[in-house]
Structure formats: structure tokens, C-alpha cells
């Protein structure tokens, strides 16, 4: 089945954009929202015909690419806010994978979720040094005077998920100013804020899920691995002096005892270390010129391939993303990310490079601690 090229028209970016962004061509929505929703239902329909899926892909890929312009606006604004809080700025953005869109629609197909209302098609992320830095950034958003409407806010630091996930999520609905192009109005962008420790936990979950071919991130797969990550969520919450994970021991001795048993059963430290060193990275990019990175994890070769695109090549990057998705193998992972450098890409998405060293170090220190300490 074929996927049509993404439609785009050239427009000028807003004043908050960086200079290289003003030269870019951006995709704009070419379909009505009810057509987008219908395409989403088709994508999630196991009985859809190849012809129906081909049409749905056309619609979805245009809808997805159309989030790039508002996403860049929010990413640049996020970058400015982080610079006012800490000197080390780690901010990245990504467009949601087609596979992830399909999985989310299939999981929620009995609910009222519609593709046009999916809140994380475009997402940007900042990694902060500590919970204090994170809260300062959240407060900065609460004081913001821009036109965009806050549609959703979830504080998973004060109220962590039962699986151990912590972080702060903000979802904004894009609203142009009178002098800007209104084609992107009402598109939604998710902003994820995490501390470095919260981030190392989340990416370790994804890395282990990738290596073991289990959807641990979606509460599927090994109960033992999922329990270990819930316990480690509490370990990290203790380090950060934040609320613990529901359903995990509040007593440190009991926590460490259960963690030791699970770590031994899973051979967790050894496996986590093996995941980190077993991977080959193959790059095809000019590191200084690249702003967009197409990252593909090949599950068969156990290699990560990275292709780079210049900052004014948004459309080329999105087209390459679409073509790569058509030919990727079922167990491969693929994502299109914008970052300042390959170094920051690795820091922001260590799961794609199966880098679990920081997480395994915390686990090792915890399980070897004296039970009575």
C-alpha cells in the first residue's frame, strides 16, 4: 500500500522562532477533523482493506506532519523557559510514531477517543536537574500570558502512577495571534517535564521493553519486570524526597528485600548492563548541521541507525519518516526527533540507544545496601 507525500505550504514563522526555522516549509492540515477521525477508526480496524488503509495513511500522515509548526513554537518557548532556570538546556521534540498512534487507538477503541483529539501527536520534553527546577518551570507556565489554551495538566510527581512513572505533563491547544497563520489553531501539543532521575527510570522501562520485546510501558509483559520498575520508582522518589509509588513498601528494609529478590530472579543488573553494551550505533549525518534525527532501532541486526536532516529540511525529514515507516520490520522502533545535537539526542532518548547505565547503577547501589541502613 502506498502513502501519499505530505502536503505543505510555505509560511513565515512567529517571532519566537529561531532563525533557521523561518526558512522552512511546513505541512498544513488538508482534511476536515471528521475525516481525520474516520481515518483513525480505519487505522484501528483489524478488518480494514488495503485500499481503506492507504487512504487512512494519507490523512493521518498529513495530520501528524501538520503538528510540526506549533510543536516548534512550543519547543522554542520551552527552551527559553528552561534557560531561565538552569544553564544546561536539554529540550527535544518528536512527532508520534504511526505504530504508537495505532496502538493507542486500538487500546481505547471502546472509549470516546478520536484521533483529532489525541493530545500527544506532537510532543516536546525538557529534562530538569531536580524536582525544585521542575516545579519552577511548571510555575513559569502557570504565569505565561500567551494565547494558547491549557487543556490538560497531570502532576505525576505529586501523584505518581502505580507502575512507577513520574513527571509533569501539560497539554496546550495552539492559538495563533491575529498576525499569524490560523491553519494550526486548536492543534494540541504535549509538554513533558521530568527530572533526570525520573527520565532515567522512564527510558529504562522502554529500553528493557525493546530488548525483551514486551510492552512494559503499556502495562503488558513480565509482571516481575513491571514490579521491579514500580519498586525502583519508589527508590528514586525517596532520593528526590517526593511521594512514593502506590502499592510499594514504605519501609526501606522491606523495599530493598523485595527488590533484591526480583533483581536476582531477573538477573536484572547483568541484563541491564548487557543491553547497554550489546548495541551498535551507525550514524549517517553531519552532526553540526543536523537538527532533525530519524532514529531506527533494527531488532534483527541489533543496531541503531541515525540519519540527520538540516534545520530547514522539516518536510524532507517528515517524508523520510513516512517512507521508513512503510518498510520497517514489526519489531523495529522508529522515531523522528528534533534536538540540538546527537549528544543531546542520546541524553534525551537513551531508550533508543538502549542506554540503561544510570538506572542500573541506582539499582546496584540499592540492592547492595545494608538491609538495616
How does the SSE layout of this entry go?
Layout: E1 9-10, E2 25-26, H1 33-43, H2 50-65, H3 68-83, E3 91-95, H4 98-107, E4 122-128, H5 131-143, E5 149-155, E6 168-173, E7 188-195, H6 196-212, H7 223-239, H8 252-266, H9 268-277, E8 280-284, E9 290-298, E10 303-310, H10 314-327, E11 333-338, H11 342-348, H12 357-367
Parallel strand pairs: 4-7, 8-10
Antiparallel strand pairs: 1-2, 3-4, 3-11, 5-6, 6-7, 9-10, 9-11
Helix pairs in contact: 1-2, 6-7, 7-8, 9-12
Model description:
With about 375 residues, the protein is α+β, with helices and mostly antiparallel strands. The protein has a single domain (about 10-365), classed as 2-Layer Sandwich (Beta Polymerase, domain 2), CATH 3.30.460.10. The protein is about 40% helix and about 15% strand. The chain is built from twelve helices and eleven strands. It has helices spanning about 35-45, 50-65, 70-85, 100-105, 130-145, 195-210, 225-240, 250-265, 270-275, 315-325, 340-350, 355-365, and strands at about 10, 25, 90-95, 120-130, 150-155, 170-175, 190-195, 280-285, 290-300, 305-310, 335-340. The strands form two sheets. It has a nine-stranded mixed sheet with strand order 5-6-7-4-3-11-9-10-8, sandwiched between helices. A two-stranded antiparallel ribbon has the order 1-2. Helix 6 (about 195-210) packs antiparallel against helix 7. It is globular. The model is unreliable at about 1-25 (pLDDT under 50).
